[in-house]
Design goal:
about 170 residues; alpha/beta; Nucleotidyltransferase, domain 5; six-stranded mixed β-sheet; 6 strands; about 45% helix; globular; disordered N terminus
Length: about 170
């Protein structure tokens, strides 16, 4: 049996995802989710209005980063697109193409990339992620799965939340 850093990494991941140590347990006030009810046209219209208000608010404040991510799959090729806006200006736009991964992995990659880029922008204290995969995103915070993307996003968010207790993220 191999001993050393591999065992230490396993222990670190086990501690981060143990009950009481997960992001949802420690930083529950630092993130929020805005779900939409797609059952009625009225609910969809209200959700779109809410998203518009979030975008307007983020465009007027230099401490906000608006991350918009989306993925699509065609002929087993996944295309991920991420846009990052700060103060109503496009800061970063990326397109990634990948083959042979699941749509969940692609969504988590796009979200991780957007969060990672937003965190390194000077003065950002609030990140707003707009995605059509809100249920996948929720797994970042309350999952006991040790998927590579979830672990990476969790680690980045821990650093972001710990840096300043006012830092937050909305989905």
């Amino acid at each position: 049996m191999i001993k050393g850093p591999i065992v230490d990494m396993d222990n670190r991941f086990n501690k981060e995802f143990a009950l009481g140590s997960r992001l949802i347990d420690i930083f529950h006030s630092c993130f929020s989710f805005h779900y939409s009810n797609k059952q009625s046209n009225e609910s969809i219209k209200l959700h779109i209005c809410h998203l518009n208000n979030i975008a307007i608010k983020s465009s007027s404040d230099l401490s906000y980063a608006l991350v918009i991510s989306n993925t699509s799959i065609k002929n087993n090729v996944v295309t991920s697109i991420t846009h990052i806006y700060v103060h109503d200006k496009s800061i970063i736009k990326t397109i990634h193409h990948t083959v042979n991964i699941t749509s969940t992995e692609a969504e988590l990659f796009a979200i991780r990339y957007g969060i990672n880029q937003a965190i390194i922008i000077s003065g950002i204290s609030k990140i707003i992620v707009i995605t059509d995969s809100i249920h996948t995103t929720r797994r970042i915070f309350d999952s006991s799965l040790h998927l590579l993307y979830i672990v990476a996003i969790s680690t980045e968010l821990r650093k972001f939340f710990t840096k300043n207790y006012h830092n937050s993220i909305e989905f």
